[in-house]
Write a structure and sequence with these properties.
Elements: E1 6-11, H1 15-26, E2 31-35, H2 41-46, H3 48-69, H4 81-106, E3 109-112, E4 115-119, E5 122-125, E6 128-137, E7 141-143, H5 157-160, E8 169-173, H6 177-189, E9 192-197, H7 208-221, E10 224-227, E11 231-236, E12 242-246, E13 251-254, E14 256-259, E15 263-265, H8 272-275, E16 298-300, H9 311-325, E17 340-342, E18 348-352, H10 355-361, E19 365-372, E20 386-393, E21 399-405, H11 409-421, H12 426-430
Length: 452
């Protein structure tokens, strides 16, 4: 009989933790998992799923306008925030129920509460003390709002999903994908949006052409994008709105202020020191290629490890961990050529290296790109253009980067990610016949490198 309560205990029932626990249980392990919030984690409860639903809702305002250009007579339209939020919440409840069912059907015991380490084999959840041979940390991350005068008046993305009403004026601070997505969402739903970013172009870390296209696209849509700008102080006004003093000294008024300036691992108060688990100065847990920490029986997956903070990556890491430790099928996680999308307006789909990264890695790089109006918008009043870009390593002819900005960018890049992951060459792209008329066919029709 085991000296431990569980073979595996997982702290955090988000995507990575749930996947790891289910797979481990399938291999015959006795598994327990704890969660202080709702099962499903950031993505399902307060992240990509509800945010994508909000993105769909926001696009209808443009769809109504586009319909008129195609001969449709569109009557009076209006948006009911409360009705949408209720529908969104019903879907999140449904998904939460599915996740609960997945754990139950796999025989995983769910314990409600935040797990805190007492030592390397012992975790306390509420009043219950639990021992486990192996422990997996999958607590994810949380939004970060910097400390400055009035910062307590701002909300994060977590609260944006549950506002009582749609703000007439909202200021969003940040230039990353979360801030940029929410700027498009609130603008599409009817808010007057100001986006403030300290940098000179939005979406730091993405390809420079992508960054320029998205920044220009948001401005063309009517979003007040203020670059190289910051907030000194936020004050509440007598009418219930907020007054923001900017670094320039100017005053900006808003009915809601949202900060999307970064996320940090949810490790404070986890008791990692008691277990001997190392972290860096931001709370990130360093792990090896098998998600092992510096303590032999303790592992970590997902955003808490800050490798690539995407839900499919956490799922992959959790599955690989369970295969390795409980399935006796050791496999590491390959974090190369992971595709991603930004559901901004215009949207982004990307996989592989940016042009800058490729030029640092390879002796010679060829760039192919095209900017054009989507066929749909040849009849509408939209000035939006799509961007298609290929990054090619000249020596091997391998396509090492695909970047798309515009309608259905994420859907397009998902398929091309298989090609990039498989190491296909530009010649193989060229030999592929495109589907006409589609925007995606442009990626197999780019023939002349930029500058030649």
């Amino acid at each position: 009989m085991s000296q431990f309560d569980f073979d595996l205990f997982v702290i955090g029932a988000g995507s990575g933790g749930v996947r790891a626990s289910r797979i481990a249980a399938g291999y015959g392990a006795k598994v327990g998992i704890c969660e202080e919030s709702r099962v499903g984690g950031t993505c399902v409860i307060r992240g990509c799923v509800p945010k994508k639903l909000m993105t769909y809702a926001a696009h209808y305002s443009e769809d109504f306008e586009d319909a008129r250009a195609y001969g449709w007579s569109v009557g009076e339209t209006s948006f009911d925030w409360q009705k949408f939020i209720q529908a969104k919440d019903r879907e999140i409840d449904r998904l939460n129920g599915i996740y609960l069912g997945l754990l139950s059907n796999a025989g995983v015991e769910l314990i409600e509460g935040r797990g805190v380490f007492l030592d390397r084999h012992t975790v306390k959840v509420g009043a219950r003390t639990i021992t486990a041979k192996t422990i997996l940390i999958a607590v994810g991350g949380r939004p970060f709002i910097p400390d400055f005068p009035g910062s307590e008046l701002a909300i994060s993305s977590d609260e944006a999903f549950h506002l009582d009403s749609l703000p007439k004026r909202i200021t969003i601070v940040g230039g990353g994908f979360i801030a940029t997505e929410f700027a498009g969402i609130f603008h599409g739903l009817g808010s007057q949006v100001t986006q403030i970013y300290r940098g000179d172009v939005l979406l730091r870390g993405f390809d420079d052409d992508v960054r320029a296209a998205v920044t220009a696209g948001l401005i063309e849509h009517g979003i007040d994008v203020r670059l190289e700008c910051g907030v000194r102080e936020i004050k509440a006004t007598t009418d219930g709105s907020y007054s923001l003093q900017l670094n320039s000294g100017k005053i900006l008024l808003a009915d809601q202020v949202m900060y999307a300036t970064g996320r940090y691992p949810h490790t404070p108060g986890l008791g990692l020191a008691a277990a001997g688990v190392n972290t860096d100065n931001t709370g990130v847990i360093p792990v090896d290629e098998f998600s092992a920490t510096n303590i032999a029986n303790i592992y970590a997956v997902g955003d808490v490890t800050n490798r690539i903070n995407l839900t499919p990556v956490a799922l992959h890491e959790g599955h690989a961990f369970a295969d390795t430790v409980f399935g006796k099928q050791p496999r590491s996680c390959d974090h190369r050529f992971v595709p991603s999308a930004v559901f901004s307006n215009p949207a982004v789909g990307t996989v592989g290296y940016t042009e800058t990264e490729a030029r640092e890695l390879f002796p010679q790089v060829l760039i192919y790109k095209s900017s054009f109006k989507h066929l749909k918008h040849t009849l509408t009043y939209s000035k939006q253009k799509m961007l298609m870009k290929l990054v090619v390593e000249a020596k091997t002819d391998r396509v090492v980067g695909v970047h798309v900005v515009g309608q259905d960018a994420g859907e397009i890049v998902q398929g091309f990610a298989i090609a990039v992951k498989s190491g296909l060459t530009k010649a193989q792209f060229d030999a592929t016949i495109g589907i006409h008329p589609t925007a995606a066919e442009e990626l197999v029709a780019l023939r002349v490198p930029v500058g030649e």
